[in-house]
Amino acid sequence: MSTAFPIRRARIPLALLAAALAWAPAFAAPPISLAEALAIAQFRSPQLAAQQASARAAEALVPAAGENPDPQLFFGLENVPAEGGDRWNVNADFMTMKRVGVMQQFVRSGKLEERSARAVAESRREAAVVEMQRADLERDVAVAWFDRYYAERSLALVDALLSETALESGAATAQLAAGKSGSAEAIAVRSARAALEDRKLEIDGRAQRAAAMLERWLGDAGERAPGAAPDVTKLAHHGMLQTGLEGHPHLAMYAPMEAAAEAEVKLAEAAKLPDWSVELSYAQRGPGFDNMVSVMVRVDLPIFGSRRQDPVILSKERSLEQVRAQAEEAKRRHLAEIRTSTVDWNIARERLERQKRDIVPLAEERARLAQSAYAGGRADLAAVFDARRAALEARLGAIAAEAELARAWAQLAYLVPERTAP
Predict the structure, then answer these.
(1) Domain range for residue 331?
(2) How far apart are CA 60 and CA 54, in angstroms?
(3) Total domain count for the chain?
(4) Smaller CB count within 10 Å for the chain: N or C?
(5) Do the beta carbons of residue 55 and residue 126 sit within 8 Å?
(6) Domain presence at residue 120
(7) Structure confidence at residue 281 (pLDDT)
(8) DSSP labels for 1-59?
(9) What does residue 153 show for φ and ψ, rounded to 5 degrees?
(10) Number of H helices and number of E strands within the chain?
């Protein structure tokens, strides 16, 4: 048997309801991880969708590339008298015929094979461009995500110090009013707070710019705070970065481009070999005359190759050389990019280690000593704020070094298809 509770017991205090409504957006919008951001960006990218449509369009052309042209239907009148008493009479002269037929052109099998090879190569190139754009998108989204992540970490650090400064500003003002301290200390507190506010504006600007970029790719999800960052001090495929460059998204398209150019050369060469066609027609003549059937075979005569086919062959060969040179240049350029990004990543790791090992601990120790000296009456408040400002700059420098490391990591982690997703 169910128990009915009085309605008054189900009432929620207004304060609790207001608190629940205030916290509702936080529960509705959990932090967004880097992997989730990448997935949303790929799903929403119109550029990627357009290139995928282009790849599907190129793939759809492959079956038709190896087929002969469609047959042609023809019909008409032949040998109609134009003069004399039977002029324009289609039934008087025995040579006048109403003719209907079909014609089929047959392309040499070698040409059909090269056309198919060219279509397959173009389809592969479009698919490779999809992966190239996907890699660029992942890299750009990852860099923007890291920029916002580290900007918000910096903001949290500045806000914490601002809270401390606000308390000390109130204490300094009270001491000044009581005559226990001079105006220099109050001015030092206000100066330190103004400098922190200015630094906060600078960092907040970076965070807002990164958020705007994320909203471009993620939509409303770009407003969510970034979640935990992946380990940017390690690269799962570090040893494979300079091997297998043909699989690099920016290089993978050159192999099908070269295959398509080679097919163009072979097609130009095959143009010297004749194609042929067959016509079958039925001719109806006037009353009293027998009807007729005709079979005709036509063959191309490429007898002026030096003026027609040879220039085309030479042009296609030069285009092939161009593609090969572009592929070699792209390979050298991307190999240099991999090496420079690796150098940046290694240097950023060393900087971060030095920041954590030496610079930040020493700056914090200096701040603690300055605070102790001030408490013991051996230093003024300006020295304390100078030491705190130095400690803040050291901690912000460590965050900046980690952000630089993350950007270098993103350049490498989303550079080749063998990347390991965070």
Answers:
(1) 37-66+134-266+311-413
(2) 10
(3) 1
(4) N
(5) yes
(6) no
(7) 95
(8) ---PPPGGGG---HHHHHHHHHHHHHHHSPPBPHHHHHHHHHHH-HHHHHHHHHHHHHH
(9) -65, -40
(10) 10, 4
Strands (E), 142-257: none
What tokens does 123 get? 């389809």
Per-residue pLDDT for 267 more than 90? yes
Helix pair angle (109-178, 254-270), 10° resolution: 160
Closest to 137 in 3D by CA, of 40, 42, 33: 42
Output the six-digit token pair for 128.
């490779």
Q: Residue 285 is inside which H or E element, if any?
A: strand 276-285
Nearest to 34 by CA among 42, 24, 26: 42
The secondary element (H helix, E strand) that includes residue 338 is helix 309-354
pLDDT at 8 over 50: no
Q: Is 408 left (phi over 0), alpha (psi -120 to 50) or beta?
A: alpha
Nearest CA to 262 out of 115, 56, 410, 145 is that of 115
For the record, the structure tokens of 238 come out as 């570090």
pLDDT digits (tens, 9 = 90+) for 114-172: 999 999 999 999 999 999 999 899 999 999 999 999 998 888 888 877 776 665 555 55
Position 388, amino acid: R
**DSSP conformation class of 291:** -
Residue 284: enclosing H or E segment and its boundaries?
A: strand 276-285
Task: Please report where in the chains the tokens 């600007």 appear, as a residue.
Answer: 205
Beta-ladder partners of 279: 103, 296
Kindly tell me if the per-residue pLDDT of 178 is higher than 60: no
Residue 296 confidence (pLDDT) above 80? yes
346 found inside a domain: yes
DSSP conformation class of 327: H
Instruction: Pick the closest to residue 246 from 161, 177, 373, 331 (CA basis).
Output: 331
Stated pTM of the model: 0.76
Q: Which two tokens stand for residue 34?
A: 């880097």
SS3 of 295-326: the string is EEEEECCCCCCCCCHHHHHHHHHHHHHHHHHH
CATH number of the domain within which 385 lies: 1.20.1600.10
Which of 394, 375, 42, 358 has the alpha carbon at shortest distance from 221? Answer: 42
Distance of alpha carbon 293 from alpha carbon 290, whole angstroms: 10
Question: How is residue 250 annotated by DSSP?
Answer: T
- Residues of the chain by 3-state class (helix, strand, coil), percent to 5: 65, 10, 25
Q: Is residue 75 part of a domain?
A: no
Whole-number pLDDT of residue 11? 37
Q: Is 83 helix (H, G, I), strand (E, B) or coil?
A: coil
Q: Assess whether pLDDT exceeds 50 at residue 418.
A: no
